[in-house]
Amino acid sequence: MPARSRHLTLLRPLRLDMGALEAAFDPSAPEDSAYLDLETGDVVTLTPREVTRAIHAEPEDLATWDPDRYELVRSVLARIGKRYRPVPVDEPADLWSDAKEFVGTVNDAKLAKRLGAALAGAGPVHRFFRIVWDAEIADEWGTFVAAQRRERIVAWLTSLGYSPLWSETDP
To answer: Which DSSP symbol is given to 136?
Structure first.
């Protein structure tokens, strides 16, 4: 029987602002693009207008730009995939999966059953959230989703070869 080879991948530590990264994962501003700086751990968010202006900048346009912001935008665009990695945004499937898992954490059996039924019926997202709000468990839902998102962030960073480090005072 051949010996099995085990490869140990060492993850590079990366200190980062977890709150900023969590905000970048949030799909509430899908038109903006967020990038993680793999050297500093900073999250840089670029608007479509900034990207367009930086790519097609004319000398007269530069007079209206903050020179530091212009250089940052140009730097990010030139180093995507190297120093800067596009931050993925949570997909609707992530929200759906979170909602189904959340049902299993609800201690009130009747409420859990109502939430599960809401997800199985027509208009599931609207019905699910209405029950969450009516049952006054929005805080519990928010805490649950934040923990799920953080797990996705850690998995993403690990896939890039990084071990995230953040302050426990981060949200």
So the answer is: T
Are residues 142 and 106 part of one domain?
yes
Which range marks the domain in which residue 70 is found? 31-88
Q: CA–CA separation, 96 vs 74, rounded Å?
A: 36
Q: Is 4 part of any domain? A: no
The dihedral sign for the CA sequence 49, 54, 57, 61: positive
Note the pLDDT tens digit of each residue in 28-68. 767 889 999 999 999 999 999 899 888 887 777 777 888 89
In a domain, 54, yes or no: yes
Domain count, the chain: 2
Amino acid identity of 66?
D
Tell me the DSSP string of 51-120: HHHHHT--HHHHTTS-HHHHHHHHHHHHTBTTTEEEPP---HHHHHHHHHHHHTT-S-HHHHHHHHHHHH
Task: Please give the helix or strand (H or E) that residue 94 lies within, else none.
Answer: helix 92-103
The whole-model pTM stands at 0.82
